[in-house]
Design brief:
By secondary structure, the protein is of the alpha/beta class. Helix content is about 30%, strand content about 25%. The protein has 2 domains: about 180 residues, Immunoglobulin-like; about 270 residues, 3-Layer(aba) Sandwich (Aminopeptidase), CATH 3.40.630.40.
Length: about 475
Amino acid sequence: MVKRTPSSLGRFLWFSFVWAFFGFSPALVPTAFAQSQGIIGARAALNGLSAESHAIASAADLTGTGEAATLTFTLSAPVEASAFVLGQPDRVIIDLPAVSFELDPETGKPLKPEARRKGMTRSGHLVDSFRFGSFAPGRSRIVIDLSGPARVVKTEVVQVSGKDGFQLIIQLAKTDRDTFEAAVQAARSIREAAPVNAPAAAIETRASSPATLPRIVLDPGHGGVDSGAMANGLIEKTIVLDFAKALAAKLIATGRYDVVMTRDDDTFISLGERVKMARDRDAALFVSIHADTLSEADVTGATVYTVSNKASDSEAARVAEKENLSDSAAGVEGKDEANGISDILFDLTRRETRTYSHVFAHTLANYWKVAARLNKNPERSAGFKVLTAPDVPSVLLELGYLSNEKDAAALNSPDWRDKATAQVANAIENYFSARGVASEKAVPGETAVDVPIAVNPASEPDTASPGATVVSDAKPLSLSHSTAGAH
């Protein structure tokens, strides 16, 4: 008689029945099953230590082979940690309370910048790379990229012998694909059963303003555990946040706009939440700000992207693919959210919105070249998830390439930032003026003067002076502000 070993699914169902039979909460079944398999360490053992409210991580060390790996963080205080696994791609997620990671940002980075995007891994190692940072208010996260399926042997916090410091130790071991997939499903069940935290709130940049002011949502890309591109000592999430803050200040100073930021600190915001913020706030314009990096260091200049079902070229497809991995980089499962709407009115609204997106992209590229370099192909389109609001004109501005020496120097320069943000503000002013959108100043009794301007990129000289008004015969589109912001 052949003895059959029960499958992971069979063991899971049996485990669920036993727990239910003895009256344990169904929500705890996946956790208990996963822990019994050594796949999920629900809480790091503190070994009698008392967790403090805020710890500092000062070092990280990774050792291992293709069969096992140990990742150790040196901490100033003990913390509670919970672990779970995610698939597609294979990852281990470690959730922590707020931790200050005082480490080199490139610690844990893959051997090659493009390795993860191309599906490459560290040859012969169970762990390909890892990253860390803020995930949400009061929460931090470590994301470990795996070269194959693995289980969490243990997560524990121990005090360093003879010293004041502590260590968070994460031990992993190789496992089979079926067991790993069962753990992924178990972890998903736990998260779905857990109470839903309130989504991140958009950051209002002014206390109050008239309801008639056009609302602009500025979206500094990446943030927190998702650092974005890194090259030449620069980090994308920091560069774009500084740029967005400077631009917001200029727009607010005009008194013509209500400005909202998706984030104003080093916090992770999912792509879906960024889109939701723009729609919930009835934004008249959404500008997502990013920077890029390439192995070819000679590529330079800014690019303005709009959304499209088909990429305009291979480079646009590459950038969209990279930016769409932001949620994955932070250990968030992506969701294909169907809007469920296919009526004619919705389709017309989306088409008009995309038309306005192209109009603003054209205008922005035209003004940008007054102060900074443009890429040789500055207007492109692709399937960017963050630009999918059907009723909010949206663009993604790649400021330049961190991998290019000249771009890197500019992106890190306050003087360049001041000039570049001034031109973006001018482009926004032109865009709304051309549409005939009223923008009364947020000062009692004072009204802005609307100037009927339409930029014609084909006729504007490259040497146009900053802030110059260019008038052409082009007629602005007739879609009203209220229609563009409708749901």
